[in-house]
Amino acid sequence: MVNDLISDSLTRIRNAAMRRLDATTLMHSKSVEAVVAILQDKGYIDSFNVIEDGVKKTINVVLKYDDDGKTVINEMKRVSKPGRRVYKPASEIKRFKNGYGTIMVSTSKGVLPNDKAFELGIGGEVLCTVW
To answer: How many distinct structural domains can be found in the chain?
Structure first.
């Protein structure tokens, strides 16, 4: 059994990108679906869809590559872990990697990218960083 679905999902995406696979399958949760939706909005993945197989749900993620065949994702890192939660106020999540990267924050308004959380003026738990 997997304790941390977000870190498992990030690892599956990283491994699939290293092997140059077209798609990968993730275990479903609302937070994982929100993180994957942000990845699609920011252009790190091509698309995703939720597949329901009876009671069990999975997420199929189609990866994105540039013209040279390199993955668009340079680095994906889990920040807040089950053993050590990391919380930041809105003032500390303004920019990441000089605006080229994205911080995903779990807030009272749901999982948001750093620019949207700063715009709303709310902080929260820093889930992961991507650039």
So the answer is: 1
